[in-house]
């Protein structure tokens, strides 16, 4: 090999090494609840030229994804907890290896059982009452939010219907519980157009 070829190859590998200067940002988002597979990894690539390709593997969950021509930013979603191997490269021969962990939420369990009081007919007199808020798992403090917007553990002034309680711990892990309130109807021989005690010509009270 003459000196010109040596110089050429030296410059080639030097330029290649200089071009492989990407900064890879991989931001994992853990699952929202115990047992869920809604984790996410967001990839951000800067300082290098695309297009990029990547492989994405997790042997435990039998995931093996290959994508080509991706942009600098890419999001991989619906991931179960576990360790994921990510390899990113471009057409210039630059290859970057990353290992990312998707965390698992602790199981949150509401131990206390509520007393449920059904509303009178269509009135907002129902309630879901907890004597205490005993919770197993997760990390305190805990936040409560009902489907009607209430943020207290016990709620009142409820009409008949289904109400969902979402409990969120300090790690933003959640669990949901649903409770049904049935309305108390007056006993009728026939169902009138208004069965809540108002006078009606279409039914007979018994």
Short description:
Helices cover 8% and strands 43% of the residues.
Key terms:
mainly beta, four-stranded antiparallel sheet, 15 strands, elongated, disordered N terminus, 206 residues, three-stranded antiparallel sheet, 43% strand, 1 helix, disordered C terminus
Adjacency order of strands in the biggest sheet: 4-3-6-7
DSSP helical segment count = 1
Mean pLDDT: 77
Q: How much beta, percentage-wise?
A: 35-45%
The low-pLDDT segments are 3-18, 186-195, 199-206
Q: Quaternary status of these chains? A: single chain
The amount of helix comes to under 10%
Cα-based radius of gyration, to the nearest Å = 30 Å
Number of strands: 15
Shape: elongated
Terminal CA distance reads 110 Å
Helix-strand category = mainly beta
Helix and strand pattern: HEEEEEEEEEEEEEEE
Please summarize the sheet with the most strands: 4 strands, antiparallel
Can you walk me through this structure?
With about 210 residues, the chain is mainly β. Helix content is about 10%, strand content about 45%. The chain has a four-stranded antiparallel sheet with strand order 4-3-6-7, with no helix packed on it. Strands 1-2-5 form a three-stranded antiparallel sheet, with no helix packed on it. It has a three-stranded antiparallel sheet with strand order 9-10-13, with no helix packed on it. The radius of gyration is 30 Å and the shape is elongated. It starts with a helix and ends in a 25-residue tail after the last strand. The model is unreliable at about 5-20, about 185-195 and about 200-205 (pLDDT under 50).
């Amino acid at each position: 090999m003459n000196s010109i070829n040596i110089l050429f190859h030296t410059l080639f590998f030097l330029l290649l090494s200089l071009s492989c200067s990407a900064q890879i940002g991989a931001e994992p988002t853990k699952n929202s609840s115990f047992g869920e597979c809604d984790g996410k990894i967001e990839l951000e690539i800067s300082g290098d030229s695309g297009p990029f390709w990547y492989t994405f593997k997790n042997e435990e969950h039998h995931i093996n994804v290959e994508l080509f021509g991706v942009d600098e930013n890419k999001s991989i979603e619906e991931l179960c907890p576990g360790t994921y191997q990510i390899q990113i490269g471009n057409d210039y021969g630059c290859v970057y290896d990353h290992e990312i962990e998707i965390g698992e939420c602790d199981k949150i369990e509401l131990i206390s059982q509520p007393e449920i009081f059904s509303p009178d007919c269509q009135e907002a007199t129902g309630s879901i009452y907890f004597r205490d808020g005993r919770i197993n798992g997760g990390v305190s403090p805990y936040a409560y939010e009902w489907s009607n917007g209430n943020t207290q553990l016990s709620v009142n002034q409820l009409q008949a219907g289904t109400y969902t309680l979402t409990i969120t711990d300090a790690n933003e892990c959640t669990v949901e519980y649903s409770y049904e309130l049935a309305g108390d109807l007056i006993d009728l021989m026939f169902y009138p157009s208004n069965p809540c005690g108002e006078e009606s010509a279409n039914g007979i009270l018994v």
